Amino acid sequence: MANFLEAEAAQKYKNAENATRPYAKTIIERSGIAAHLNSGAEANVLDFACGTGVMVQELYDTIPKKNWGQLKVLGTDISPPMLKFLKARGEKQGWMGLETKVVDGNVDFTQALPKSSFTHIFTTFALNMLPEQTLSHLYSLLRPGGFIAVATWSAMPWHSLLTRSIALLNTPQPYSPSHKELQETFCGPWAAGSYVVQQLKAVGLQQVDTSTQTEGVRAGAPKDFMGSMQFPLQFVVKTWWEEERDGILEELSDAMKGIVEEETGEDGEMEMEFDGVVGWGWKSG
């Protein structure tokens, strides 16, 4: 989805943590990792498709600093700029045990990572963009008794904003996808909690459960909000508008920014309501 490899990707995507962090918090709570470390055990964590590291931030914020020495964390992503951002973030905050590694989730990554080695594996808002076998590959990396958690979107809260923005474009106006089309494209079957449960059980996880969350989010000032919106807007253009005129992405971005500024003011904050699913389970042993 979009170009996560460009140098500015991390700065644009960082603002999206306003939406994703509440789900990261749920995952850390459900994992029981704080109690696991308090018992004197060690944890070897994989944050797969980690992006700018919102899961890692929530993890280190939750774990008492006295227990950081028991913690090893590997953040993997296809995007070197994202990993560079995460590494700098960790160095600034003094996170012990953090490493990063470029891993392409679109191929068999099990040769690049040690099997049966991680106590906890997290992957958030990525499975809908990755091959069907991704979850089974992650399962093979999990130790017996280990924990996997995933988070997925259920809806695209910016659909009405997209529709209004398209209506402002010069004629001929490009196709305006419905919310159902956006959901199918950006979420796929992962939008349904029942599907998440089915997939977690299918790979062999036990004690599988899910929770659905609706979160009111401050999505940033217009400039920041539009920075993070470049990824989905690029995908809209690629999916439905490949034959459209040059510069259509810029036209759309300008139209949307104008609507946001009219509603919030240049220095105000965009507010949106996000819906997502968190699913988790344990490997026997």
UniProtKB/TrEMBL annotation:
Residues 45-146 form the Methyltransferase domain. GO terms for molecular function: methyltransferase activity. CDD domains: AdoMet_MTases. The keyword Methyltransferase applies. InterPro entries: Methyltransf_25, SAM-dependent_MTases_sf. It holds the Pfam family Methyltransf_25. Coiled coil: none annotated. Gene3D superfamilies: Vaccinia Virus protein VP39. Signal peptide: none annotated. GO terms for biological process: methylation. Keywords: Methyltransferase, Transferase. This is Methyltransferase domain-containing protein.
